[in-house]
Amino acid sequence: MPGYEVETVTHHIGGSDYRIRALLNRQQFSDPDGSAERAGVSPASWPLFGVVWPAGLALAEEMSHFPIAGKSILELGCGIALSSLVLARRGADITACDHHPLAEAFLQHNVALNALPALPFRTAPWLGPNPLLGRYDLIFGSDLLYERNHAALLAGFIGMHAHPVSQVLIADPGRGYVSPFSVLMTALGYVRSASTMPMANSIGMPDSRGQLFSFTRNH
After folding, report:
1. pLDDT per residue over 105-148, tens digit each?
2. CA-based nearest residue to 23, from 41, 8, 1, 44
3. What is the mean pLDDT of the chain?
4. Across the chain, how many H-helices and E-strands are there?
5. SS3 state of residue 110
6. Which pLDDT score is estimated for 53?
7. Measured between alpha carbons, how far is 125 from 117 in angstroms, rounded to an integer?
8. Whether the Cβ atoms of residue 122 and residue 132 lie closer than 8 Å to each other
9. Under CATH, to which class is 6-218 assigned?
């Protein structure tokens, strides 16, 4: 037994069904060899990677029709990586990354579960350096700015791994740390725009605070 419980659920995204193995709930925890602790994953945050969050669902729906032709794409802090699976089905040049020690195993299981083509994964802590990761035309993620220090960490990571001409998409449920992140992205030469992105709240009801932030840099 792995020490944690899972479930397989089906999500309907962009007209297609995706079967996803996820953690049974947010109370799961197992780190028998200390690999999560060494990666900087605390017991409280350990299960967060293995849950399909409302912002992740909303972003996956966006990725089901977002323009991808000719773009190298990175899902940052992918967690269960539903958006990456959606893009893989569309034939995108997509790489997923996370620093949780179980993220890759869950991703590859779900790739096989949905009969999708191979999907590259990279272990990539935001503090880096991550010399094998390279640079990308489009970097995206969902619900990434949920702690005070995440704005600086995320902007620093993007500075190392985005092409000079690039776009960054962040689906945010209203956590409150987008403003300092936007200031840092402006310093990197990005221009911000935002649109409403409907999401569910913790009990499954619609929540109007969700937004999709787009940062573009054209030089």
Report:
1. 999 999 999 999 999 999 998 887 888 899 999 999 999 998 88
2. 8
3. 94
4. 6, 11
5. helix
6. 93
7. 25
8. yes
9. alpha beta
Output the six-digit token pair for 32. Answer: 């028998």
Q: Which residues are within 8 A (CB) of 186 and not within 5 positions of it... i.e. 6 or more apart?
A: 192
- The Cα-based distances of 43 to 6, 7, 47, 102, 151 in angstroms read 17, 20, 8, 14, 22
Q: Is the dihedral of CA 147, 106, 134, 127 positive or negative?
A: positive
Tell me: the pLDDT tens digits for 172-202?
998 889 999 999 999 999 999 999 998 976 5
CA dihedral 86, 75, 10, 101 (to 10 degrees): 140
pLDDT confidence tier of residue 203, bands split at 50, 70 and 90:
low
Lay out the sheet containing 191-196: strands in order across.
Answer: 121-123, 93-98, 72-75, 136-142, 162-172, 211-218, 191-196
